[in-house]
Amino acid sequence: xxxxxxxxxxxxxxxxxxxxxxxxxxxxxxxxxxxxxxxxxxxxxxxxxxxxxxxxxxxxxxxxxxxxxxxxxxxxxxxxxxxxxxxxxxxxxxxxxxxxxxxxxxxxxxxxxxxxxxxxxxxxxxxxxxxxxxxxxxxxxxxxxxxxxxxxxxxxxxxxxxxxxxxxxxxxxxxxxxxxxxxxxxxxxxxxxxxxxxxxxxxxxxxxxxxxxxxxxxxxxxxxxxxxxxxxxxxxxxxxxxxxxxxxxxxxxxxxxxxxxxxxxxxxxxxxxxxxxxxxxxxxxxxxxxxxxxxxxxxxxxxxxxxxxxxxx
Length: 313
Prior knowledge:
By secondary structure, the chain is mainly alpha-helical. The radius of gyration is 29 Å and the shape is elongated. 76% of the residues lie in helices and 0% in strands. The chain is built from 15 helices and no strands. The protein has helices at 8-30, 36-42, 50-62, 74-113, 119-159, 165-173, 175-182, 186-194, 197-210, 214-226, 232-249, 252-263, 271-282, 284-287, 293-306. Helix 1 (8-30) packs antiparallel against helix 3 (50-62). The chain folds into 3 domains: 8-161; 164-230, no CATH class; 243-313, no CATH class.
């Protein structure tokens, strides 16, 4: 099932931040250079932690009040559970690491100055610290395994939202992070989500167009076409993006030419795009200058007549 989920892009961004921070934490632990402050910054139940924010956002977006509710979709619930498990395992690692790195040395320092009467107590402390030392390594391995499984679930979840233009834009804009997190090229990842890379760029391009980001729309639609998309409508939408970009840049001749390519395509045209095109072209009479002004205004007037409004109206 495809759809849109307000807040999904924020979750993707937070996961990318968590993935990078968690991998760095694992690497530094294994190299013996991990400091408590790094653990404290990531594995904590405060808004300053991207892991905490990820958990809270997933709960808010994906966790239904009633698990039997119709909107309790399996993929979203699985991802939410994976993130929650990752958070709680990280918190367990935090507690073990604190005892191992901070509490343990303090206890052992106290033992040196304690009397014989405290030996039994310190023996118990030592048993706890020995167990903690084993738990630190096991906990880190479990946290890393959960991170890997959560990453897999995110990939599965994103397929559910192939029609979400904001998501497509996010993935393309964050291509370096996508490649680092998932260990593949952006095109290969888009194939996994959309079936082919061109479709991912097409969805992003149409979303940019709807939001009035014409340069970005042109670039994304170019990428879709360059990757083999055989879609005349995409070519016309690209022409629309070029035309509106040119209009905003004051290149009115190109604006009329490119918008005409879009307008001359098969109807019906998107009403919102049509309204914007009419508004832009109708202003060219007042804006155009230069030696070719007369020809540009005439072409604009002809175009307006074709799309339903004349310049003299």
